[in-house]
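Deviation from plan, reported transparently: flavin mononucleotide complex.
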Amino acid sequence: MSVFNSTKPLNIVAVSGGLNHPSKTEALVQAIIDELGEATPIQVHFIKFSEIAPLLGGAIYRKQLPQRVQDDLAAVEAADALIVGTPVYRASFTGLFKHFFDFVEQTALVDVPVLLAASGGSDRHALVLEHQLRPLFSFFQAQTLPIGVYATDRDFTLEYTIYSEALRDRITLAVARALPILEWAPAKGQRAEVVKSKTQQANQNLGINKQIEQDEVLPSAAVPSLDAAESRLHQNKVKPQVA
Ligand SMILES: Cc1cc2nc3c(=O)[nH]c(=O)nc-3n(C[C@H](O)[C@H](O)[C@H](O)COP(=O)(O)O)c2cc1C
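Because the crystal trials were delayed, the predicted structure below was used instead.
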Protein backbone atom coordinates (compact mmCIF):
# COMPACT_ATOMS: atom_id res chain seq x y z
CA MET A 1 0.00 0.00 0.00
CA SER A 2 1.22 3.51 -0.78
CA VAL A 3 2.33 5.81 2.03
CA PHE A 4 1.41 8.79 -0.14
CA ASN A 5 -1.89 10.63 -0.50
CA SER A 6 -1.49 11.11 -4.25
CA THR A 7 -2.40 8.23 -6.54
CA LYS A 8 0.02 9.53 -9.17
CA PRO A 9 3.10 7.30 -9.30
CA LEU A 10 6.40 8.92 -8.38
CA ASN A 11 8.51 9.73 -11.41
CA ILE A 12 11.77 7.94 -10.58
CA VAL A 13 14.82 8.22 -12.82
CA ALA A 14 17.48 5.62 -12.11
CA VAL A 15 21.03 5.86 -13.41
CA SER A 16 23.52 3.00 -13.44
CA GLY A 17 27.06 4.01 -14.35
CA GLY A 18 28.13 0.37 -14.79
CA LEU A 19 29.89 0.02 -18.12
CA ASN A 20 29.83 -3.78 -18.34
CA HIS A 21 27.04 -6.10 -19.30
CA PRO A 22 26.05 -7.78 -17.07
CA SER A 23 26.80 -5.19 -14.40
CA LYS A 24 26.76 -5.41 -10.60
CA THR A 25 25.94 -1.72 -10.39
CA GLU A 26 22.95 -2.23 -12.65
CA ALA A 27 21.78 -5.19 -10.52
CA LEU A 28 22.17 -3.07 -7.38
CA VAL A 29 20.19 -0.15 -8.79
CA GLN A 30 17.50 -2.55 -10.04
CA ALA A 31 17.20 -4.08 -6.56
CA ILE A 32 16.68 -0.59 -5.06
CA ILE A 33 14.04 0.18 -7.69
CA ASP A 34 12.26 -3.10 -6.90
CA GLU A 35 12.29 -2.40 -3.15
CA LEU A 36 10.89 1.11 -3.66
CA GLY A 37 8.26 -0.26 -6.05
CA GLU A 38 7.08 -2.61 -3.29
CA ALA A 39 6.43 0.37 -1.01
CA THR A 40 4.78 2.87 -3.33
CA PRO A 41 3.61 3.30 -6.94
CA ILE A 42 6.48 4.42 -9.17
CA GLN A 43 7.16 4.90 -12.83
CA VAL A 44 10.80 4.36 -13.73
CA HIS A 45 13.10 5.58 -16.47
CA PHE A 46 16.28 3.51 -16.10
CA ILE A 47 19.41 4.93 -17.77
CA LYS A 48 22.06 2.23 -18.21
CA PHE A 49 25.59 3.21 -19.09
CA SER A 50 26.11 -0.33 -20.37
CA GLU A 51 23.91 0.91 -23.24
CA ILE A 52 24.70 4.62 -23.61
CA ALA A 53 28.40 4.88 -22.67
CA PRO A 54 29.69 4.67 -26.25
CA LEU A 55 27.34 7.54 -27.20
CA LEU A 56 28.62 9.85 -24.46
CA GLY A 57 32.37 10.09 -24.72
CA GLY A 58 32.85 12.18 -27.86
CA ALA A 59 30.51 15.03 -26.93
CA ILE A 60 31.77 18.27 -25.45
CA TYR A 61 28.51 20.22 -25.78
CA ARG A 62 25.04 18.89 -24.98
CA LYS A 63 23.77 19.56 -28.49
CA GLN A 64 26.43 17.16 -29.84
CA LEU A 65 24.86 14.24 -27.96
CA PRO A 66 22.62 11.76 -29.75
CA GLN A 67 18.89 12.36 -29.18
CA ARG A 68 18.66 9.30 -26.94
CA VAL A 69 21.12 10.75 -24.42
CA GLN A 70 19.53 14.20 -24.64
CA ASP A 71 16.20 12.53 -23.77
CA ASP A 72 17.88 10.79 -20.82
CA LEU A 73 19.22 14.13 -19.56
CA ALA A 74 15.76 15.69 -19.92
CA ALA A 75 14.34 12.78 -17.90
CA VAL A 76 16.89 13.37 -15.11
CA GLU A 77 15.99 17.05 -15.02
CA ALA A 78 12.25 16.27 -14.78
CA ALA A 79 12.48 13.50 -12.15
CA ASP A 80 10.66 13.58 -8.81
CA ALA A 81 13.60 11.64 -7.39
CA LEU A 82 16.78 9.93 -8.58
CA ILE A 83 18.43 6.62 -7.76
CA VAL A 84 22.05 6.83 -8.91
CA GLY A 85 24.70 4.12 -8.85
CA THR A 86 28.24 3.93 -10.12
CA PRO A 87 31.03 1.39 -10.00
CA VAL A 88 34.09 2.61 -8.11
CA TYR A 89 36.92 3.37 -10.51
CA ARG A 90 40.17 4.61 -9.00
CA ALA A 91 38.44 5.50 -5.71
CA SER A 92 35.70 7.59 -7.35
CA PHE A 93 32.78 7.47 -9.76
CA THR A 94 33.71 6.68 -13.35
CA GLY A 95 34.77 9.50 -15.65
CA LEU A 96 31.74 8.90 -17.87
CA PHE A 97 29.35 9.10 -14.89
CA LYS A 98 30.73 12.59 -14.15
CA HIS A 99 30.67 13.50 -17.83
CA PHE A 100 26.94 12.65 -17.99
CA PHE A 101 26.12 14.80 -14.95
CA ASP A 102 28.27 17.64 -16.34
CA PHE A 103 25.54 18.04 -18.97
CA VAL A 104 22.70 18.32 -16.41
CA GLU A 105 21.41 21.87 -16.03
CA GLN A 106 22.80 23.20 -12.77
CA THR A 107 19.53 24.20 -11.08
CA ALA A 108 17.42 21.28 -12.36
CA LEU A 109 18.03 19.10 -9.30
CA VAL A 110 17.41 21.66 -6.57
CA ASP A 111 15.74 19.83 -3.65
CA VAL A 112 15.41 16.59 -5.66
CA PRO A 113 15.89 13.55 -3.42
CA VAL A 114 18.80 11.39 -4.62
CA LEU A 115 19.47 7.88 -3.33
CA LEU A 116 23.20 7.14 -3.69
CA ALA A 117 24.61 3.71 -4.53
CA ALA A 118 27.96 2.30 -5.59
CA SER A 119 29.61 -1.04 -6.21
CA GLY A 120 33.29 -1.68 -5.78
CA GLY A 121 35.77 -4.51 -5.60
CA SER A 122 36.77 -3.64 -2.06
CA ASP A 123 35.07 -2.75 1.25
CA ARG A 124 37.74 -0.12 1.74
CA HIS A 125 36.11 2.21 -0.79
CA ALA A 126 32.62 2.27 0.77
CA LEU A 127 33.04 5.93 1.70
CA VAL A 128 33.03 6.82 -1.98
CA LEU A 129 29.33 7.47 -1.31
CA GLU A 130 30.22 10.20 1.17
CA HIS A 131 33.32 11.82 -0.29
CA GLN A 132 32.62 11.56 -4.01
CA LEU A 133 28.90 11.07 -4.76
CA ARG A 134 27.39 13.20 -1.99
CA PRO A 135 29.45 16.32 -2.82
CA LEU A 136 28.59 16.03 -6.51
CA PHE A 137 24.88 16.09 -5.77
CA SER A 138 25.34 18.78 -3.12
CA PHE A 139 26.69 20.96 -5.90
CA PHE A 140 23.30 20.55 -7.59
CA GLN A 141 21.58 21.54 -4.30
CA ALA A 142 19.87 18.16 -4.47
CA GLN A 143 18.68 16.42 -1.31
CA THR A 144 20.95 13.42 -0.99
CA LEU A 145 19.10 10.81 1.05
CA PRO A 146 20.49 9.85 4.46
CA ILE A 147 21.32 6.21 3.74
CA GLY A 148 23.29 5.18 0.67
CA VAL A 149 23.97 1.61 -0.46
CA TYR A 150 27.44 0.22 -1.15
CA ALA A 151 28.03 -3.29 -2.45
CA THR A 152 31.17 -5.26 -3.23
CA ASP A 153 31.81 -8.08 -5.66
CA ARG A 154 31.30 -10.55 -2.79
CA ASP A 155 27.65 -9.52 -2.40
CA PHE A 156 26.73 -10.95 -5.82
CA THR A 157 26.41 -14.45 -7.24
CA LEU A 158 28.26 -15.37 -10.42
CA GLU A 159 25.00 -14.56 -12.25
CA TYR A 160 25.05 -11.05 -10.74
CA THR A 161 22.03 -11.56 -8.52
CA ILE A 162 22.30 -10.34 -4.93
CA TYR A 163 23.67 -13.02 -2.64
CA SER A 164 24.17 -11.14 0.61
CA GLU A 165 21.40 -10.76 3.23
CA ALA A 166 23.28 -7.80 4.71
CA LEU A 167 23.06 -5.96 1.38
CA ARG A 168 19.34 -6.74 1.11
CA ASP A 169 18.82 -5.35 4.63
CA ARG A 170 20.75 -2.22 3.71
CA ILE A 171 18.57 -1.66 0.64
CA THR A 172 15.43 -2.06 2.77
CA LEU A 173 16.78 0.44 5.31
CA ALA A 174 17.75 2.95 2.60
CA VAL A 175 14.28 2.80 1.06
CA ALA A 176 12.52 2.97 4.46
CA ARG A 177 14.51 6.11 5.33
CA ALA A 178 13.79 7.57 1.87
CA LEU A 179 10.00 7.18 1.95
CA PRO A 180 9.09 10.11 4.26
CA ILE A 181 11.29 12.41 2.17
CA LEU A 182 9.93 11.15 -1.13
CA GLU A 183 6.43 12.01 0.09
CA TRP A 184 6.90 15.67 -0.78
CA ALA A 185 9.26 15.18 -3.72
CA PRO A 186 6.72 16.10 -6.44
CA ALA A 187 6.34 19.58 -4.90
CA LYS A 188 10.02 20.41 -5.37
CA GLY A 189 9.49 21.81 -8.87
CA GLN A 190 8.12 25.10 -7.51
CA ARG A 191 11.17 25.70 -5.33
CA ALA A 192 13.51 24.75 -8.19
CA GLU A 193 11.85 27.36 -10.43
CA VAL A 194 12.42 30.12 -7.85
CA VAL A 195 16.07 29.15 -7.38
CA LYS A 196 16.56 28.99 -11.13
CA SER A 197 15.21 32.47 -11.79
CA LYS A 198 17.16 33.94 -8.87
CA THR A 199 20.36 32.31 -10.17
CA GLN A 200 19.78 33.71 -13.64
CA GLN A 201 19.08 37.18 -12.22
CA ALA A 202 22.20 37.10 -10.07
CA ASN A 203 24.31 36.00 -13.00
CA GLN A 204 22.92 38.80 -15.17
CA ASN A 205 23.23 41.52 -12.53
CA LEU A 206 26.65 40.76 -11.21
CA GLY A 207 28.42 38.16 -13.26
CA ILE A 208 28.96 34.93 -11.39
CA ASN A 209 32.56 35.66 -10.37
CA LYS A 210 31.73 39.08 -9.02
CA GLN A 211 28.96 37.53 -6.95
CA ILE A 212 31.43 35.13 -5.35
CA GLU A 213 33.58 38.10 -4.34
CA GLN A 214 30.69 39.48 -2.24
CA ASP A 215 32.02 37.69 0.80
CA GLU A 216 29.47 39.15 3.23
CA VAL A 217 26.67 37.59 1.19
CA LEU A 218 28.00 34.08 0.93
CA PRO A 219 27.26 32.85 4.48
CA SER A 220 23.62 32.71 3.41
CA ALA A 221 22.81 29.96 5.94
CA ALA A 222 21.89 32.85 8.23
CA VAL A 223 19.44 34.08 5.59
CA PRO A 224 17.17 31.17 4.71
CA SER A 225 14.77 33.19 2.55
CA LEU A 226 15.96 33.78 -0.99
CA ASP A 227 14.35 37.24 -1.06
CA ALA A 228 16.17 38.25 2.13
CA ALA A 229 19.46 37.00 0.70
CA GLU A 230 18.85 38.96 -2.48
CA SER A 231 18.11 42.21 -0.65
CA ARG A 232 21.37 41.80 1.29
CA LEU A 233 23.12 41.30 -2.01
CA HIS A 234 21.73 44.57 -3.31
CA GLN A 235 22.62 46.43 -0.10
CA ASN A 236 26.18 45.32 -0.53
CA LYS A 237 26.45 46.68 -4.06
CA VAL A 238 27.38 50.12 -2.65
CA LYS A 239 30.23 49.56 -0.22
CA PRO A 240 30.82 52.20 2.51
CA GLN A 241 33.93 54.33 2.03
CA VAL A 242 36.67 53.57 4.58
CA ALA A 243 38.35 56.73 5.90
C1 LIG B 1 39.28 0.66 -14.14
C2 LIG B 1 38.75 0.08 -12.87
C3 LIG B 1 39.07 0.68 -11.66
C4 LIG B 1 38.58 0.17 -10.47
N1 LIG B 1 38.90 0.79 -9.31
C5 LIG B 1 38.39 0.34 -8.13
C6 LIG B 1 38.68 1.01 -6.92
O1 LIG B 1 39.39 2.00 -6.87
N2 LIG B 1 38.12 0.53 -5.78
C7 LIG B 1 37.33 -0.59 -5.75
O2 LIG B 1 36.84 -0.96 -4.68
N3 LIG B 1 37.03 -1.25 -6.91
C8 LIG B 1 37.54 -0.82 -8.09
N4 LIG B 1 37.24 -1.48 -9.28
C9 LIG B 1 36.33 -2.65 -9.23
C10 LIG B 1 34.90 -2.27 -9.62
O3 LIG B 1 34.46 -1.11 -8.97
C11 LIG B 1 33.90 -3.37 -9.25
O4 LIG B 1 34.27 -4.59 -9.82
C12 LIG B 1 32.49 -3.00 -9.66
O5 LIG B 1 31.56 -3.77 -8.94
C13 LIG B 1 32.22 -3.17 -11.15
O6 LIG B 1 30.88 -2.81 -11.41
P1 LIG B 1 30.10 -3.34 -12.72
O7 LIG B 1 29.88 -4.81 -12.58
O8 LIG B 1 28.81 -2.57 -12.67
O9 LIG B 1 30.93 -2.98 -13.90
C14 LIG B 1 37.74 -0.99 -10.48
C15 LIG B 1 37.45 -1.60 -11.70
C16 LIG B 1 37.93 -1.08 -12.88
C17 LIG B 1 37.58 -1.75 -14.19
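Confidence is low (pLDDT under 50) at residues 212-223. We consider this an acceptable substitute for the interim report.
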